[in-house]
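Notebook entry, structure prediction.
Reason for the run: the old model in the group folder had no record of what sequence produced it. Starting over properly, with the input documented here first.
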Amino acid sequence: MKLTEYIKPGKTLFSFEVLPPLKGKSIDSLYQGIDPLMEFNPAFIDVTYHREEFIERPRKDGGYDKISTKKRPGTVAICAAIMNKYKVEAVPHLICGGFSKDETENALIDLAFLGIENVLALRGDNLKNERNFVPEKNGNSNALDLIRQIADMNNGVYQDQELQNVTETNFCIGAAGYPEKHSDAANMVSDLKFLKRKVDAGAAFITTQMFFDNQKYIDYVAMCRAAGIMVPIIPGIKPITTKGQLRALPKIFNMDIPEPLASELEKAKDDTAARQIGIEWCIQQCKELKSLEVPALHFYTMSFSSATKEVVSQIL
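New structure, fully documented this time:
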C-alpha cells in the first residue's frame, strides 16, 4: 500500500527510521530497536542506506589495498524482513552515491518483486575526502535525477529502452525537505525551487530533516505551499539524549538548536539530565505538531528506541 494512502485529514500517523546493522552484526540487534515501538502501530518504518567507506591500507610490496571500513548492507533484505515480521510498510532509502543507474534499476526491480511500493529518493552524503558530491560513473547526480529514473520505471521506461513488454513499477516516491535549508543550497528560495522540480518529477511526499523549533516547520510548509508544493510534508523528529548532541547535531545536519533548549542542555549536569530535558522538549514539540494535524510524526531513532518510546507514549 502506498504511503500516501495511509495519510488522512485530521489524523497524525506515527513512523520511525532505523539503521541497518553494521556488516557482521545480526538483524536481531535491529529487531531489539523495533520491538518496543510496535505497540504504537507505526504506519511505516524507514530503512536508511549509507555509502560504503574505504581506506587504503599499505602492503609490504609498497602497494595499497582498498579496504572497506564501514558498511551497513542489507537495506532491501531488511525491508522485506520488516514487512514479513511486523506486517508494516517498509520505506527503503535509495541514494545516488556509489550506484550506477543500472545498479539502481536492479535494486528497484528487487524491491518491486518483494512488493515494496514506497521509496525515499536521496542524493546521499559526500565521501569524507570529497569537498563536493561526486556521482558514480553512469550514476545519478542528484535526487532529482534519481526521482526521474524511478518515475520512468513507473511508466515502463528502463535503461535498456529496447526491452519489449516491460512491466511498469508502482513506486510511491518520497523526497527530503529541509526546513532550515539544504547545506548546499544558496538560499531557501533556490532550495524550494529544486524541491518543486522533484515534486513535479514524481515525488508524492516529503519527509523533513530533523528540527527542534516547530515554527521552522510551520514556516517551511507555508513557503512550500506558496511555491506550489502541495504534497504531504512529514516532520522529522528526534529527542536529544546526550549533552554532546548539542554540538554534534547542528554540525552534522545543518540545523539550529533553539536557545531555550540549548541553554537547558548547557546547564545539564550529565547525559542523564540532558536526556530528560531532550525528551520533555520533544514531547511538547510533538503535542504542538499533532495539534496542527501534521500527516505523521516521523522519529529518527537511529535504531535506539527507548527515548522515542517515552515520547510517543505521552502523545498517542
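Summary: The two ends are 23 Å apart (CA to CA).
The old model has been moved to the deprecated folder.
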